[in-house]
Amino acid sequence: MSKHQQKNIETQEELSEVLQVRRDKLQNLIDMGRNPFEQTQYDVNDYSMNIKNNFEAKEGQTVRIAGRMMSKRIQGKAGFIDVQDSQGRIQCYVRKDAIGEEEYPIFKTYDIGDIIGVEGTVFKTKREEISVKATSVVLLSKSLQVLPEKFHGLKDPDLRYRQRYVDLIVNPEVKEAFLIKNKAVKAMKNYLDERGFIEVETPVLNTIAGGANARPFVTHHNTLNIPMYLRIATELYLKRLIVGGFDKVYEYGRIFRNEGMDVKHNPEFNTIELYQAYANYEDIMELTENLIAYMAEEATGSTKVTYQGKEIDFKPPWKRMTMIDCVKEYSGVDFNEIETDEEALAIAKEKGIEITPGMRRGEVISAFFEEFGEDKLIQPTFITKHPVEISPLAKRSKEDPRLTDRFEAFANGWELANAFSELNDPIDQKGRFLDQLRKKELGDDEACDMDEDFINALEVGLPPTGGLGIGVDRVVMLLTDSASIRDVILFPTMKPIGAAKNAEEEE
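Given the sequence above, the corresponding structure tokens read:
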């Protein structure tokens, strides 16, 4: 046995002893008729930050706060504790003569992590720290686990995501990121609501995986005896609502894609999709830059954010470039002068671009953009005029029918949003779906399926419409300077611990 393994075993034994002590303390309380888990409520009337921010009005008042005890400093007949509630932390001063001769010894047995209720008066210590002078301390829930002293110092970084409840307790900045996310989402919805958009709900379980190029999660409906798919987009249902007579709709919620995981990708994530009748992609472009700038300002106080040392300014107007112009600027290849699939494939081979089965000029342009252009777009930028081959639901450009009236919004080299003038020609749309089926036959498992009912909806009549999808989690990453999408999803997808250990043993 190595010294490292021996040390781990000793640490586990020591920890087990500590955990047993906590259980013994709980049993003692139960034997005294003071089982903390029998507490059903505590009449909270104030919170830490509210007390601190309004000290002049609160001084001398009696308050009742509740939260988790995060530190304890006892000296004889008095001591200080820090209580952490939903707003932050506040110090409490606990004296034997104030809470009682019988209560004080019991209070001294309380552990870091215990949830308590404190009643007392607001005052300032000699060191000018706003505090609560306790007249009673009640144990509301006993913590049987030990909180880490320095959570970021844990050897297993995944533990922060696996035990988010502990992460939130010991790392205040983690909670702050989710509060900013909450503000950003509220701002996003308010912005749209004030402009006449209506929030709607569409199915999460679909019989066809459509609306995006992505691999779906597949499940089975027992009663109907059919395969079903967790939605990869909300687009096709939302456009059906425009057909039905809603002029402006949006949906914020979870999307599921059975794809890779990295700092920008989680199998389930949050998007907002919106559709506006009688609008085109240029109208939606203006809406997008104003919406994201508004989210930034409402959530952080500024349109400027610092992400991993880089300043990014969301203030409109954003830079605009066609995809072909971007490729030309960063690769030196001008696809305006490359007319055929054969020429495109030849230049792709020359530049080391991976060639996939059935690849055509439009897909080569997209591959060049991803290879040479995407990571250069640090400041917010709209990339427009995507090739038809990679835009099965977008309207063709009048100037060049090989391209579409589409844009993607980028910042920090990431795609934040995708939008276009919606294709409302049912004949063209059916042809695009058939082309997607051709790609699927060639091995592209992200290609769209045929959706006959959606074709029928288009035949009923979809007005000229602009649509938009925003990856909300990526926007929030930038607003909170979060290095990983896992930092802005409360419970990100994780490999089960047993599966992770098995994988390590196999290696």
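Residues 3-31 form the longest helix (29 residues). Try to locate this feature in the token string yourself.
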